[in-house]
Amino acid sequence: MPQVVNIAVSILFDGLAYAMFLFITSVGLSVTMGLMGFVNLAHGAFAMAGGYIVVTLTRTLGFGFVTSLVVAAVAVGAASVVFERGLYRRLYKSTDLEQVLLTIGLAFMAIATATYFYGPIPRSVPLPDWLQGDVNLGFRYFPTYRAFLIVLGAALIAVLWYAFERTNIGAKVRAAVDNRRMAESVGINVDRLFTLTFAVGSGLAALGGGLAIQLLGLSPSFAVLYLVLFLIVVAVGGLGSLKGTLLAALVLGVFDTAGKYLLADAGGFFVYAVTVVVLLIKPAGFYGRE
Amino acid sequence: MAASDIMSATDPGQVRERAAEYLLKRHRFRLAECLPWLLAIAVFFVFPDRMTFGSQVLVLVMFALSLDLILGYAGIVTLGHAAFFGIGAYTVGLAAARLQWTEPISGLFAAAIVAGFVGFITGWFLLRYRGLTLLMLTLATAILLQETGNLRSDISGGYDGLPGLAFKPLLGVFDYDLYGHTYYLYALAALAVVFYFVRRIVYSPFGQALTGIRENVRRMHAIGSPVHRRLVTVYTIAAAIAGVAGALFTQTNAYVTLTVFDFDNSAKVMVMLILGGTGRLYGAFVGAAVYMVLEDYFSKLSPTFWQFGIGLVLVLTVLFARRGVLGLFESAGQYLTERKKP
User: Fold this and answer.
1) Which residues of B are less than 8 Å from A266 in CB distance?
2) Would you call B112 an interface residue with chain A, using a CB distance cutoff of 8 Å?
3) Intra-chain end-to-end CA distance of chain A, in Å
4) ipTM value of the model?
5) What is the average per-residue pLDDT within A27-54?
6) DSSP states of B140-205 as a string?
């Protein structure tokens, strides 16, 4: 295979895997913001919590990787309900600034707690044999773990799409994002709906956090370091839009990977440049409501 | 006389007169305003060996003050204010390291002009947006500047920074001393000048218009106020002041790295301001001083403990003390006077 094609395929493949991670982790944040207009900067902390739960389960308690992922997602999803009921609920009508401060305070506390228990050094996770090495796709070899990420991401997208577009609850969520007051006045319990979606979104973030350990490494600063990326995906995609979040994750994932492949020195330049350009042209994101 | 009395007048001329009177009354110098300045001078004599730390506090007070102008008065929520601090810091740093321009006071003016110019350009584009979009755009601006610096690390020194900068003696006479005494007084003088300027702005009709934009942007549009122009103006001024703070930071440290553009830096200054109280001029003083002293003390004990503590303080502030430390004092004062009355 010619060198150029080879590099292009690598960029697309790695970019796709990265985009799946971004989508899984950010989709909950997008729905949270779209539904309640709540700026949740502690979302990265939920992802980080998921990551550390996976580390503990696999390293200390000897669970399998996939089992740990599921347990982490469920545990964080359940725990997030407590936060939503106890803290977030009180600030739905507050200004952006107060929401930003509360949730960034929570993120700081989460980082400190993680540093206390796990130390500042990045942690790794033991992968099962079937996720290690490379897989042959006929014309060349690809890293198995990234292929797994892509397959898992595609499956989740299918499930979420079905839940969003074809179920009663999904229709209610779409209605509430579209016009919250109207949805309430036709009898949809938006508060309860929100608690449910918040739990699902946080659980998905935890899943993303668990998946990220192998891809990006996991240290306490994860909660803030990647938060910026999740927020960018949400802003570029448009609040509360499944389609938009997916498109934004794909565009940013591929651009970031391409930037790192082709111009290693430029680092994150491409992602932020793309973000600025998209938001200047479409302030509400790809599929956001103006 | 309260603001509501202005509108109770029937004759339009009278309204104008009362409004002017109200502004003048608020602008009048109060004796209690001496307090922070006297404290700052007292610190100079009481802790002569902590002057380097003292200068850092003064620099951050100025930085927080610039944020107060846009966040506290105009209600612009930004996550990228460190961009202007960084530009100021690098203007002075690069001028000294690459152009051998080491005169400190002209450096402050240069920093103000460059940072103000960038503030004007970015503000012109960004201030049309609100909410999450604006948050992301301001954040991305700061990171783009940082990445640009990293890209041209042959000029900027990258994350290793520009170490060992030397500046000429102040006014050609007062040289840099090891304990930072000169630079403490220099930073204090610069802060006093900037503060006087900010105070003038805040109590001017322009400042009132900003408060109006914060409180109700639609009504300001409706009464024909040039909202966008006002916002860009105040954003430019705040950027210039943040640039001066950054320049002072470089000069007092004789050192600058790309970390000045960090998101942490933007978040930190916001936390300081919120702790002290937004939209009240002296909030920046209280917030920056309290934050820095606590950080200095607790992070020596345990950085982890400190981070948890600041997070907890933020959560508690939002839940129970939305107007900051100064707001708490005010509420306590009100409570006491009300108890005395009957």
Assistant:
1) 147, 150-151
2) no
3) 46
4) 0.83
5) 88
6) HHHHHHHHHHHHTHHHH-GGG-B-S---PPBTTTBPP-TT-HHHHHHHHHHHHHHHHHHHHHHTSH
